[in-house]
């Protein structure tokens, strides 16, 4: 392939700014078709974004001969079926996070890609953003010495502004999302932890439904022991008072600490003094990752986030929430 000609399955809110426009802004990449089960909405998206074709059935988009790569941006419930169908059609797949509902489904997707020898990437796009690459650089440079532990807090009131608004709040339907707002936000954070600190030795957690009339866990705590001896402790709570909300990750080392938000644009490095690194907000947050995916699909670079990589995150989420 000399150009990646994308088809999007699920052209909903997440694709309006975060990802969709970037497919036409990356070199050797073009968005040629979109699909949504509501045909009128698919047609409207195609018209507004200048996309030549639209479909209301995923199979029609997957089998369009002009489409040679698939981006799956539906809710997690559909990720496995659409990914495997696209792989079986011989088309590489870029699938949204969380990769799917649970680790078992993620394993099936990864196995299918390997058995069919078709490329699969998962949209843990913070791996490619300048701010989080700077954190990795600081860690690789041993700026804060030997890493001891990581403390992560994600505390939000009900209906947090961090969550994309949709017509139906499918994120709190476990049959569709896999497990509520934890399953929506934690993949970003846990993937970065394994990207930074490597193989996991053990993991465990506690999950609870503290609000009334909820089907999903709204409080999750999780602990990880990495093979290198680094310890992670995270807390996610989605029922705190608005004034108590927090988004913070602190990495402690033998010579200092690095602190940063997951949804922000500033890093603080503290040793004998504090240094701040500020970053401009990205217009399309997935564009740096899409550039790496396109390079991978064109055999010009490595896989920026494989099925095996994302499977680790899915296993951690299962470890934290399984009773």
UniProtKB/TrEMBL annotation:
Residues 132-258 form the GFO/IDH/MocA-like oxidoreductase domain. GO terms for molecular function: nucleotide binding; oxidoreductase activity. InterPro entries: Gfo/Idh/MocA-like_OxRdtase_N (IPR000683), Gfo/Idh/MocA_oxidrdct_glycsds (IPR050463), GFO_IDH_MocA-like_dom (IPR055170), NAD(P)-bd_dom_sf (IPR036291). Keywords: Oxidoreductase. Residues 4-124 form the Gfo/Idh/MocA-like oxidoreductase N-terminal domain. This is Gfo/Idh/MocA family oxidoreductase. It comes from Pedobacter miscanthi. The lineage of its organism: Bacteria, Pseudomonadati, Bacteroidota, Sphingobacteriia, Sphingobacteriales.
């Amino acid at each position: 392939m000399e150009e990646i000609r994308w088809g999007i399955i699920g052209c909903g809110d997440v694709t309006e700014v975060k990802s969709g426009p970037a497919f036409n802004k990356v070199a050797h990449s073009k968005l040629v078709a979109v699909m949504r089960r509501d045909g009128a909405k698919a047609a409207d998206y195609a018209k507004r974004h200048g996309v030549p074709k639209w479909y209301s059935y995923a199979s029609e988009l997957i089998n369009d001969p002009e489409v040679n790569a698939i981006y799956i941006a539906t809710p997690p419930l559909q990720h496995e079926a659409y990914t495997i169908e696209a792989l079986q059609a011989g088309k590489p797949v870029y699938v949204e996070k969380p990769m799917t509902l649970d680790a078992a489904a993620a394993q099936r997707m990864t196995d299918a890609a390997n058995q069919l020898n078709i490329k699969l990437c998962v949209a843990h796009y913070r791996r490619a953003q300048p701010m989080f690459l700077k954190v990795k650089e600081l860690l690789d440079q041993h700026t804060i010495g030997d890493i001891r532990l990581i403390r992560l807090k994600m505390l939000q009131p009900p209906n947090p502004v961090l969550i994309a608004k949709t017509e139906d709040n499918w994120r709190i339907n476990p049959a569709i999302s896999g497990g509520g707002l934890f399953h929506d936000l934690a993949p970003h954070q846990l993937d970065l932890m394994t990207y930074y600190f490597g193989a996991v030795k053990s993991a465990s957690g506690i999950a609870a439904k503290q609000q009334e009339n909820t089907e999903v866990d709204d409080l999750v705590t999780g602990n990880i022991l990495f093979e290198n001896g680094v310890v992670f402790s995270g807390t996610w709570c989605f029922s705190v008072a608005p004034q108590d909300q927090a988004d913070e990750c602190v990495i402690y080392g033998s010579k200092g600490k690095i602190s940063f938000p997951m949804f922000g644009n500033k890093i603080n490095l503290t040793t004998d003094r504090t240094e701040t690194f500020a970053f401009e907000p990205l217009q399309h947050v997935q564009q740096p990752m899409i550039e790496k995916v396109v390079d991978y699909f064109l055999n010009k670079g490595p896989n920026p986030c494989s099925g095996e990589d994302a499977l680790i995150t899915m296993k951690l989420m299962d470890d934290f929430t399984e009773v």
